[in-house]
Design brief:
alpha/beta, Purple Acid Phosphatase, chain A, domain 2, six-stranded mixed sheet, 7 helices
């Protein structure tokens, strides 16, 4: 789909395509957004969570690009960092260690939590991330003590989608837990299970967003990018850092994000 979209985009204007290849995909933006969570204890108001996802380290996504993203996020000094998967493209073993090395400088007072994406293998990539001191959640949950309060973070494998399996991961979680799911399609299950918050990537924000048309390649997802609230569940979907299929971004720059937690007040 992305190949077809970039073809259409180049047909509309070679200048836009060239800009997306030569400039836009290389310039990472910092996104700061409030992130309301139902049931969040007052002591956790203002907690700042950094998000980096969809690095896609490859021949077309350089170490320098990922380093720029890492440096941009570290300058914000987040309290906790979440990694959203797809560290390489097509499970390319040549870049597994390179991806981990480029992310290695990430650190935060409450740690770095990671999940896997559909482009990551189940053995080498998590091992490389674990070796850098990151906690990899594969259909698992971890509980952190922060500001005298406890907070749960759950992480899904990409291929975990049955409601019963997601429920198993969330069973016993605190009412203000955050679910890490590579694809925002897991918002549907989160809503059914009354999970208050989801952090995702996978869409690249559409990667190519055409004027008057939008992000054609990401229309299958309930949320393409940004923060939205759906029936009591707040979701953030990152545009990610890298590219896949075609090394182009149009009207959709790469990003790292800092989410500032606040209680969600139901109307």
């Amino acid at each position: 789909m992305l190949k077809a979209v970039v073809g259409a985009g180049l047909g509309v204007g070679m200048g836009g395509g060239a800009h997306g290849f030569l400039y836009e995909r290389h310039h990472v933006e910092l996104t700061r957004r409030p992130f309301p969570i139902s049931g969040l204890p007052e002591a956790l108001r203002g907690l700042r969570i950094g998000v980096i996802t969809d690095v896609h380290r490859s021949q077309t996504v350089s170490h320098d690009l990922v380093t720029a993203a890492v440096n941009l996020l570290m300058a914000e000094r987040p309290d906790l960092i979440l990694l959203g998967g797809d560290y390489v493209s097509w499970r390319d073993q040549r870049f597994v260690q390179a991806a981990a090395e480029s992310l290695a400088p990430l650190s935060a007072p409450h740690g770095v939590l990671a999940i896997l994406g559909n482009h990551d293998d189940e053995r080498d990539m998590p091992a490389a991330l674990t070796a850098k001191g990151f906690t990899v959640l594969k259909d698992a949950r971890t509980r952190l003590k922060i500001r005298g309060e406890t907070m749960d973070f759950a992480g899904l494998r990409y291929w975990t989608y049955r409601l019963a399996d997601v429920a198993h991961v969330m069973r016993g979680a605190l009412p203000h837990a955050i679910l890490l799911a590579h694809t925002p399609k897991r918002l549907h299950e989160a809503q059914q299970l009354a999970v208050p918050a989801v952090v995702s990537g996978h869409t690249h924000g559409g990667q190519i967003v055409l004027p008057g048309i939008g992000a054609i390649a990401a229309r299958e997802f309930p949320v393409i990018a940004g923060v939205e609230q759906r029936q009591g569940t707040t979701i953030f979907v990152s545009r990610g850092v890298g590219t896949v299929y075609v090394p182009v971004r149009v009207n959709c720059p790469p990003e790292v994000a800092v989410l500032t937690l606040e209680p969600f007040m139901r109307s």
